Amino acid sequence: MDKQKRKKKIRLATAWLGGCAGCHMSLLDLDERLIDLFEVVELVYSPIADIKTFPKAVDVTLVEGAVANVDHLELAEVIRRNSTIVVSFGDCAVTGNVTSLRNRLKIDDLLTKVYHEGPGTAPRGLEEDGIMPALIPKVLPLHQVIHIDGYLPGCPPEPDHIWQAVSTLLDGQPVRLTQEMRYFG
Amino acid sequence: MSVVTLHINDEIVSARSDQKLLEVIREQGIEIPTLCHMDGISELGGCRLCLVEVKGSNRLLAACVTPVQEGMSVYTHSERLVNYRHITMELLLSERNHTCAVCVMNGHCELQYEAAELGVDHVRYEYMTPDLPIDASHSKFTLDHNRCILCMRCVRVCDEVEGAHTLDVMGRGTNSRIITALNRPWGDSISCTKCGKCVQVCPTGALFEKGSSVGEMEKRHAFLSWILNGRERKEWHW
Amino acid sequence: MNREELQVIGEREREKQQSYRCRILCCASTPCLSSGATAVIETFKEVIKEFDLEAEVTVTSTGCMGPCSRGPLVTVQMNGQQDVIYEHVTPELARDIALAHAAPEAKPLDRNVLPADLPFFNKQKKVVLANSGLIDPTRLESYVARDGYSALAHALREMTPTEVCEEVIRSGLRGRGGAGYPAGLKWDLVRKAPGDKKYIIANGDEGDPGAYMDRTLMESDPHRILEGMAIAGYAVGADQGFVYVRGEYPIAAKRLENAIRMAERRGLLGSRVLDSPFGFRIDIRIGAGAFVCGEETALMASIMGRRGQPWPRPPYPAQKGLWGLPTLINNVETFGNIAPIISHGADWFGAIGTEKSKGTKIFALAGTVETTGLIEVPMGISLRDIVFEIGGGIPNDRQFKAAQTGGPSGGCIPTDHLDTPVDYESLGALGSIMGSGGLVVMDDTSCMPDVAKFFMEFCMEESCGKCVPCRVGTVQLHRILEHVTDGSATLDDLDRLEELCVMMKETSLCGLGQSAPNPLLSTLKYFREEYEAHITNHTCPAGKCTMFGVPPLQLTRDLLRNTLQAKNDTEVS
């Protein structure tokens, strides 16, 4: 990354849909490279930053997690509308992965099993409660909902892979991972 | 045995006349993906990953089943072929529930490896997410239909090498299913010798040894040619 | 039996038929049987008995007469008069017909009579179906009376095997199963293949939705197929033949079985055919309901008792077929052409049809036309003639929209190409195929993406599962078409659809997968605007599709609830 040439910092966002946050943990595992990263980028939205609404004019957004409910659909749409480049970040966003394991079940059966028959007092699992957003019939990988510019598979993607992808992106190159970095799982 | 001369990617190559194209191509050090092929058992020609272009033929031919011919001119990595292999891999990944992250074969899987090799970083088709059972009735092995790609290696090795023919296939189309003991639980099978060859040749985590957890299952393929060399030629070198 | 005895049998049968003043022929093929032909035949027999007319009037159960939608059909032949064909015959009407024709001053009824100059018959040319509707398929004599087995006798006595092959090559006959490979060349390949043991297979595993040419031929004139196979056996040096009959055709299998037994008893099949040194046996194998077993290699796997899956060619069946031996496999209709070619000569046959497609072709005309049924037309006739002349046009004042040829492997041909001659090359150039002979006519109430979906669903369910492009590709194509027809597809999906179609065509293992995208590709080519209307305007121009779906991104809370509600409602109703 050529730091001198860039005057304006790149506006980076990360988002968290239906996933386990492991990809964000892996991002944090960039460790000291995070310092390099934040010299050239400004984090404008992230689950690890206290920002409530998705801002406008974002350069790059990394999206973790699959699309599992209506809130995810709406956020995905907002992200696409306001970002120049959207990257599917991790296997859940790329393939649906563990989040999509519920796809073979009917939603009603799933909710009954988890919330009605589950332990403790849980919400009824219906979106009328205003507590839980309505689940969509099947969990979808992100690219089946919005246009995606790059894919970063892995569960989670290793810090080195993230670094490789992010640094090529910040150089204005499309995400192109080498063969050994392209693994699912 | 006579010798034939042919062109592979415009290089002149000689081969024995009883060889199949795939063998000759691999001898040249050219990597060509396969999933249903396995040294030591009969060919199936079903995964369609080893398709090659042969000059003068208007069809693409599967290298694993195509015999070499004098003067043929073969191309292994044309743009069209690379694209088709890519699509084939996407189709395979979309068919069943290949969730690498929670698979016993994660990191050792042939499907996963070939997908990465072919540059498949996402699947453009809808995932079918079928509801498939797992047969864990056997004392040593488990059959997980969710990860099966229907390459039939297990069926062929059980029939041709072990001679038990415990495994077979039923149904058709995408509803095809590997069955054990005439569609009864594997654990009830009288014919199964528990030799584990089916498990060792399975390219994915569809067949695995009990007790292995995520990423712990590794498979040995070389044993097959070792057994066959010993049985047929009495050569017992590992 | 020898050739002279054969002639005597034929002569005696002809005399017997002529001795009746009135011959009533009732169609006893599946379509007419299902609309009540059995009761009609019984009525005729009762009337004849009741009025003691056994010496003057005879009633015969025959094969198919053609316009099946007008069944049950009855033809009445009177010496010295023109034949009269009655449609929609009921037992009551049958009584009237019998009495009217048996009366001393016989006069046809004025009800339910098909006009003698009906275009349905005029434009046809019957070669393979020449006997169909005129002979009793359960009686060998009936076939022999119309010169049956004379071609076999001629070939055995006057021709060498090489000459038979050459004659078939010279005739220009092409395989009637769909691909149109020159039959004679195939025969010659098998003849030249080394080995003492060879096989002949007649493929009667017809499976295209709406097609029943092979069934009709097997039901109406089984001996014709046996004779063709025996000639082929003599030509290529095979002593064993199999007829592979689709499992859903019990009547065809029964009549073939009966025909084989009779031919063997008379020495027309068996160890010494017509007292010559040539021996030939035929057995029947019944399919078990898999469409893919119509594919030659899968069919052979099925005959051998294996799972009905194709294997990669080469080696071709002519080199390594049944049990690894040279095998000649042709469609039953191809074998139906052999006897006329040998009897009348290759030049006679070559004069029918076009330059590259010789002879005639049987089609099962179905869909929205006035008269549906089984037709045999010379190659090169235009689709317009078939639809508007023979079929009588589109009923209910609707417009013609498309003709689908070749079943799930074929394509849809739009109005602009109605004047295309029907032959192998012209149909291929339009993205369709001749196929085995299904021809479905559609009017403007048909939705083309919906039609494509129907055929894709068929292929999806019939894919054997051996190769990936066909096994998974058909399912994915069907999924995308479902999205198109429920309105949840995007324009990207159309590109994906096309790309996947081309990929499947080129990479699938056998003909099923290679041709499965044809209906889809051809509708996409000629009716793309209909696909786009479903996607961009969210409407189905033909009004067929429910359009309940929504593209994922437009799924909001309200819409999601509405869609699920609508889906539940339709499922409940």
TrEMBL record, chain A:
<dbReference type="InterPro" id="IPR051349">
    <property type="entry name" value="Hydrogenase_assoc-protein"/>
</dbReference>
<keyword id="KW-0560">Oxidoreductase</keyword>
<dbReference type="InterPro" id="IPR037024">
    <property type="entry name" value="NiFe_Hase_small_N_sf"/>
</dbReference>
<feature type="domain" description="NADH:ubiquinone oxidoreductase-like 20kDa subunit">
    <location>
        <begin position="20"/>
        <end position="168"/>
    </location>
</feature>
<protein>
    <submittedName>
        <fullName>NAD(P)-dependent nickel-iron dehydrogenase subunit HoxY</fullName>
    </submittedName>
</protein>
<dbReference type="GO" id="GO:0051536">
    <property type="term" value="F:iron-sulfur cluster binding"/>
</dbReference>
<keyword id="KW-0574">Periplasm</keyword>
<dbReference type="Pfam" id="PF01058">
    <property type="entry name" value="Oxidored_q6"/>
</dbReference>
<dbReference type="GO" id="GO:0003677">
    <property type="term" value="F:DNA binding"/>
</dbReference>
<dbReference type="InterPro" id="IPR006137">
    <property type="entry name" value="NADH_UbQ_OxRdtase-like_20kDa"/>
</dbReference>
<dbReference type="GO" id="GO:0042597">
    <property type="term" value="C:periplasmic space"/>
</dbReference>
<dbReference type="GO" id="GO:0016491">
    <property type="term" value="F:oxidoreductase activity"/>
</dbReference>
<keyword id="KW-0371">Homeobox</keyword>
Automatic annotation (TrEMBL), chain B:
<dbReference type="InterPro" id="IPR016214">
    <property type="entry name" value="NAD-red_Hydgase_HoxS_gsu"/>
</dbReference>
<dbReference type="GO" id="GO:0051537">
    <property type="term" value="F:2 iron, 2 sulfur cluster binding"/>
</dbReference>
<dbReference type="InterPro" id="IPR050157">
    <property type="entry name" value="PSI_iron-sulfur_center"/>
</dbReference>
<protein>
    <submittedName>
        <fullName>NAD(P)-dependent nickel-iron dehydrogenase diaphorase component subunit HoxU</fullName>
    </submittedName>
</protein>
<dbReference type="InterPro" id="IPR001041">
    <property type="entry name" value="2Fe-2S_ferredoxin-type"/>
</dbReference>
<feature type="domain" description="4Fe-4S His(Cys)3-ligated-type">
    <location>
        <begin position="80"/>
        <end position="119"/>
    </location>
</feature>
<dbReference type="GO" id="GO:0016491">
    <property type="term" value="F:oxidoreductase activity"/>
</dbReference>
<feature type="domain" description="2Fe-2S ferredoxin-type">
    <location>
        <begin position="2"/>
        <end position="80"/>
    </location>
</feature>
<keyword id="KW-0408">Iron</keyword>
<dbReference type="InterPro" id="IPR036010">
    <property type="entry name" value="2Fe-2S_ferredoxin-like_sf"/>
</dbReference>
<dbReference type="Pfam" id="PF10588">
    <property type="entry name" value="NADH-G_4Fe-4S_3"/>
</dbReference>
<keyword id="KW-0472">Membrane</keyword>
<feature type="domain" description="4Fe-4S ferredoxin-type">
    <location>
        <begin position="183"/>
        <end position="212"/>
    </location>
</feature>
<dbReference type="InterPro" id="IPR054351">
    <property type="entry name" value="NADH_UbQ_OxRdtase_ferredoxin"/>
</dbReference>
<comment type="similarity">
    <text>Belongs to the complex I 75 kDa subunit family.</text>
</comment>
From TrEMBL, chain C:
<dbReference type="InterPro" id="IPR011538">
    <property type="entry name" value="Nuo51_FMN-bd"/>
</dbReference>
<dbReference type="InterPro" id="IPR036249">
    <property type="entry name" value="Thioredoxin-like_sf"/>
</dbReference>
<dbReference type="GO" id="GO:0046872">
    <property type="term" value="F:metal ion binding"/>
</dbReference>
<comment type="similarity">
    <text>Belongs to the complex I 51 kDa subunit family.</text>
</comment>
<dbReference type="Pfam" id="PF01512">
    <property type="entry name" value="Complex1_51K"/>
</dbReference>
<dbReference type="GO" id="GO:0008137">
    <property type="term" value="F:NADH dehydrogenase (ubiquinone) activity"/>
</dbReference>
<protein>
    <submittedName>
        <fullName>NAD(P)-dependent nickel-iron dehydrogenase flavin-containing subunit</fullName>
    </submittedName>
</protein>
<dbReference type="GO" id="GO:0010181">
    <property type="term" value="F:FMN binding"/>
</dbReference>
<dbReference type="InterPro" id="IPR001949">
    <property type="entry name" value="NADH-UbQ_OxRdtase_51kDa_CS"/>
</dbReference>
<keyword id="KW-0408">Iron</keyword>
<keyword id="KW-0004">4Fe-4S</keyword>
<dbReference type="GO" id="GO:0051539">
    <property type="term" value="F:4 iron, 4 sulfur cluster binding"/>
</dbReference>
<keyword id="KW-0479">Metal-binding</keyword>
<keyword id="KW-0411">Iron-sulfur</keyword>
<dbReference type="InterPro" id="IPR037207">
    <property type="entry name" value="Nuop51_4Fe4S-bd_sf"/>
</dbReference>
